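note to self: the first set is below, dont mix up w the second
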Amino acid sequence: MTAPTPYLHLPGTARDALSFYGAVFGCGVTVHSFADFGRTDGPAEAVAHGQLVDGPVALNAADVAGDQAPLRCEGLMFSLLGTADPATLRSWFTGLAAGGRVVEDLQQRPWGASDGQVVDRFGVHWLVGFEGTEDG
């Protein structure tokens, strides 16, 4: 592993979130239920571990169990600055915004870069952007 990988603990929405992120980023998704892992501390169909696979973004997620606290995203953004070509980043921004909330539209900044912020429908805050123009 060469970089930290986000691991979201969600309130029973991990399967939906992973499917959503897989569709936005063009990744495959693997999911293992509590039953798959022999866990009895939550519903058998709850997600014990899931991840995005074979795509440009690494992300893991699971459903919380018992008295575990679910994700609350304050004072943190996941940055996708320059991680793909501008057209792909625009597509990701639009996808992440679906059912979420645009904090700042994706726009060109005075210093020449373009970026914007969105909080997706699962409460994750994303910063998406690229340097220069979309034409090169």
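second set (the one i keep forgetting abt)
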Amino acid sequence: MSKTHFEQLLPQLEAMEADRVKQPNMPVDTFLQEAADLEVWMQEDLPKLTAVGLPQRTIDALPVRLGALRHAQSEWTRKRNTKEEAARQWEAQSSEAMDLKNELEHAFRFAFRKHPDLLGKVQEVEAGLGHADLVQDLSDLSLLGKAHQDLLASINFQTEKLDDSAAISENLSKVLAAMNGERLENGEDKTLRDKAFTLLKETVDEIRDAGKYALWKSPERLKGYKSAHWAKF
């Protein structure tokens, strides 16, 4: 149901003005549990809550907004974890890739030493920097080497490393796409999560305010309308 609730509220979330959006002021998992607890707790007090003006639409909104935030939080966490895993893969594999790139360039400079045009191509590869450039360089070096295997054979270069370079380039391209894709998407995912938090917080605050007013002389019921998280501080 959480995904259904999220999809139900998505137009409202997308239309929310930026100045209305609130950042979570406690761990979202904790807030979700408090909202779920409130949904159960308030059932006994519904007549008193509605009697002091709490709208039925607010009561009905609580489970929907709760589900929407739960889904938004799960999606943001999942994609954030995917990005972190891709970053770990890059960290583990990029060093080997850079070593191979350096080895190929070193071999090519010697093998192509009498061919200025080919040396120029090697220098173009050497000039770039950055993650994307490393991926492209490995692909370019593989193609360049395969096009001139005779020159590489003359220095007894292990041409299977050209296949290794192409394979590593392809794999790192996928890892980098995951890193970059999640980096771009994470902004939207976090924004939607924060907007879903805002909607739920507005509903929780409204219900709590009504409960605190209606039940101010009933300490045992009043405690259910206060944040257990903030009570610790």
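remember for set 2: Residues 2-16+26-231 form one domain.
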